[in-house]
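U., I forgot to send this yesterday:
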Amino acid sequence: MNRPSHFIGVLVFIHAQFCYKNIMTILTNRCFAKPVLGRVGRVRSRSLTGSAMLLKRKPSISPILFLTISAALAADSTDFSSRADAYLMKLARGEQFSGAVLVATNGEVMLAKGYGLANREHGIANTTNTIFRLASVTKQFTAMCVLILQEEHKLSVTNLICQYVEDCPEAWRAITIHHLLTHTSGIHSFTDFPDNMRFERLPTTVDATVKRFRDKPLDFAPGTKMRYSNSGYVLLGYIIEKVAGKSYGEFVAEKIFQPLGMNHSGYDHPADILPKRASGYSKLGIIIVNCIPFAMDTPHAAGALRSTVADMLIWDQALYSERLIPAKCLEAMFTEYKGGYCYGWVHGKFGSRSEFGHGGGIAGFSTQVIRLPREKVYVVVLSNCDWVKSSDIAEELRRMLFNP
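Result:
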């Protein structure tokens, strides 16, 4: 079991001289990721392998020593929680954070708490059950949808996208699904268009959004470069709907959220009456205002999902298992391609440690997730204020965890 902190040395000492009977030590070697910026998102990845070793020794550790070490580990967790809480409270008092945070190691929660207000007009506080828009953190779920369809033999990431796009533009003839997943298609991101904001506010269809960028010239030849493109992930949503025969929201709920028990996650339709959903806020100069309302039809598979910090931990833990797809299929999701991007994740380094992450930004919301698979560490920051630097906050919490 890997634990961040100076207690690793204590545990190694104990293991060398005192061992319980039937201790299972899980040694997972995985490659991880870090964030790259995008309009509705941000982050990176690599490949996964795992091994486990069963150690059997005669029980000889004294109950007093065992209780002493257990108390020390509990104190370490409490120390991190109190320091992290003080850091976040200070940010909240200065209007530099409002939202919810969760930090976990080995699936055990070290910190989970809401800060600031979910609704400023009614004085409703954020909690760990508050629902936030994920923005581009959506992309990792879209990538999983594609891999699920591939596992069901309904498509392949090597397939050309023109198999699914009606009246496919000539410039797209060499683009594959893999290119869309890794931002290497060359298709220009529609979120960079000068008139994009007026479209974001209006109801529309995914077909209509695709028409906005289908006739634009490519930024580069497919596969030659990496440039973050929300257009690519909207196209993935379009393909998912064509292949599955149902809406993107229905498919991600049926294949991911419902099987995992992520009961507070889904496509964020503004018209839905949704208890515990946070209102989003922006700044007009120094004045805090309600954010510009989005219909959420335009972001689609690039950034339209919602969730809670508790649900996001369920998602993280599922990625250590084969509950959704086989481990070999997961390797593609966490393999680093051009520019450090994987399938919906960004790969990077924290010192000598490998990590994956992704961030997101959309009107009223700012998000960031970081996971270190080998150390089994997960950090998620969801904010309902779009000026909040969620990536900086997540990185600071990760630093505090490893450097007490």
